[in-house]
Specification:
Blueprint lengths: L5 H7 L2 H12 L4 H8 L3 H11 L10 H4 L2 H12 L4 H8 L3 H11 L10 H13 L5 H4 L1 H12 L4 H11 L10 H9 L55 E8 L6 E7 L5 E5 L7 H13 L9 E4 L8 H8 L2 E4 L9 H10 L14 H12 L11 H10 L1
Parallel strand pairs: 1-4, 4-5
Antiparallel strand pairs: 1-2, 2-3
Helix pairs in contact: 3-4, 6-9, 7-8, 8-9, 11-12, 12-13, 14-15
Amino acid sequence: MGFRDGPLFFEMGSSLRLAAFWDARAMGQSLEVIAADLGVGEGTLRRYLVRSGGVRPRIVADSRARLSLEERFRIKELLVEKRSVRSIAAVLGPAPSTISREIRRGSVSGYRSEYRPMRAQRLAWEGRRRPKTLKIPSEPRLLTAVKAGLAERLSPEQIVGRLRRDFPDDPAMSVSHETIYRTLYLQARGGLKRDLQTSTRTGRTIRQPQRRAGHRRSQIKDMVSIWDRPVEALDRTVPGHWEGDLIVGKHGESAIGTIVERHSNFLILIHLDPAKENRVIATRDGLIAKLAGLPTTLKRSLTWDQGREMAQHRHISDMTGIDIYFADPRSPWQRASNENTNGLLRQYFPKRTDLSIHSQTDLDHVADQMNRRPRKRLEFATPYEVLSQYLLH
């Protein structure tokens, strides 16, 4: 299949090839590589990707999705042989009712002898491509709630979880996070306004496949390994175990300290004073200022990566009363709560910007917003709610 056949590939092509495209994209392959593998032009793929909004289409659970053009020609052959609907279904696999509907839909006047495979294929794809009414814009209360959640920088999944918690018995307020994504990205079909896309985590107009990348850090003196951490820190049932790291600004010249409590996902942000003689001193003083005043029951452990900013970890531990442990090199999953939170914080503190301009007051305001976000892991309660409940008991 050459470049000129590209549009035909997407209008009439097999579901297997479309699946191959989306699977390859999810694996992070470039459009150039995918195009070469599938035998279509890169421009064709790019246009299709833009039209789809980067969202993999759902497979419609009826004959339009299950029957290929080849199968429709096979139906025609079996009809010429005067085979029954049940016999055709037994040969092809779909239910007899599916075959019956297919024959009626693909026949010029409804008669079996006038079934036209190409007509049936065209009608099937036209029906599949016909614009559908999107639920969110058609439900004013739901639209208002989704807009409010996006304005608070909640993810679609968080919005859905909170809606289920707040409106458990209201079908009109029930929606999936994928529906929110589709409404955001498929704007040509009547979705939310473009300016609301700035409230999504990436601000992209095409959904991107997720990728992970490790980073290399050097060891520091007298560190205690994460494997020596108390057993109770392995799960999230006991509060008081924290994970920490830095998010770094433009050219690595500025940074913000982030620490996350594993049980509640409660976040503390730390301003690293650029006036300090170096980042080690700034990190030391910032952590002591924030951790020293915590209740004893919330100072069980702190796990950090092997960044050189923690060179004075023993002094920090002495001054705050919290034991400090270090994750293995290039193992961000050992501090998953902190890594995930740092990703969310990039909404507020974009990469390649000067982070030193944000005062501690600014950081406290951002942390407050984050701590009031519902979280899926907390059954869509907020970190504030979970930690407050623990402290009250």
